[in-house]
Design a protein that fits this description.
Elements: H1 2-6, H2 19-26, H3 29-40, H4 51-54, H5 56-82
Helix pairs in contact: 3-5
Amino acid sequence: MWPVGFLSNVVVAPEFMPDWLGAVAAWNPISATATAARELFGNPTGVTSGWLTDSSLLAAIAWPLAITAVFLPLSARAYRRLRK
């Protein structure tokens, strides 16, 4: 969890990061959740605009759903294999 948390926009805005790191931070699920929380609480930090910032609530809901949709069947399959 540590690398994912450090590769987000929770502490530093992606504009102040190197280009490759800013792109990773912008599309990070933790960044989407943090941006959505900032938006719901009135955006006190002034995070800059962009598609992910404008749709942060949607991204904060979509990321966990996508992760669950991918890993739930994989984990169920692995669990069934353990029982054989």
